[in-house]
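Researcher: Let's try something more involved. This one mixes different molecule types, so please make sure each is placed in the same coordinate frame as the others.
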Amino acid sequence: MLELYQFELSHFSEKVRLILDYKGLAYRKIEVVPGMGQLDLFRMSGQRQVPVLKDGGKIISDSTAIALYLDKTYPDRPIIPTNPQQKANCLLLEQWADSSIGIKGRSILLESLKNSNLRTSILPAGTPDILRNLVGSIPREAIDVLGLGLGLTPDSIRAAKAEMHRSLESICLLLAQNSCDYLTGDTPTLADLTVAGLSLLIKIPDGPYLNIADNLKGKGIPGFADNPDYDLFFTWRDKLYADFRKPHKPDMNNSGTATAPTTIAID
Ligand SMILES: N[C@@H](CCC(=O)N[C@@H](CS)C(=O)NCC(=O)O)C(=O)O
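Model: All components are placed in one shared frame. Result:
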């Protein structure tokens, strides 16, 4: 079976999970523990980021490379259009969404992480308690310093937010004037699955899709998740999820009972 090395709350992992579900491919999720687990991932794939796909003896890292590999190897329910104009639009939109919604979304999220409950709750299941407690106790000021260390100044976060507003507005305009249901045509393509999957952290889908605490579902970044200007986008995305995303199947422990996600309180 296909194996996906991932973080449950990683938006690039979500892009791949949505593609796998759309194509109807069964897969097993392997949650990578931040830090130590990434060393194993490095040994396996030569780099430390998720998602990484293992298909038998093949190891593929990077969500775009995984998408192209899956479409070539498992051609049923294609996600790359054959019509040249639709194909060009699809590939351009995917590339844009990766660097805009994907990368800028991460900068904006970092600012939201000043909320310590949110910070610990988005850590993957299996994160050692000592690391979880450490992350929870980081003062807000330290997040600012961490952000600066990552090159995120208040100006760059402001610019990332402005870009995210323009991106969501543009997607809403595209959806509003489209005569078809999806961004490049009548069926979902890599463009749709990327835009929808990468918006995970802007607003977490309110459904049974992820192994996370229930009180995180439907939550997101204030100013985006609760902005009525983007209702069209989130309604479109939620329909795509309802139509194609498969519910999370709980892992079983040794006695055959499902393991539950930890519950947390959000301020
Ligand atoms: N270009 C990569 C980006 C992947 C990425 O940014 N992954 C993040 C999680 S969403 C990650 O692994 N971060 C941990 C790190 O960089 O150490 C892709 O498309 O897969």
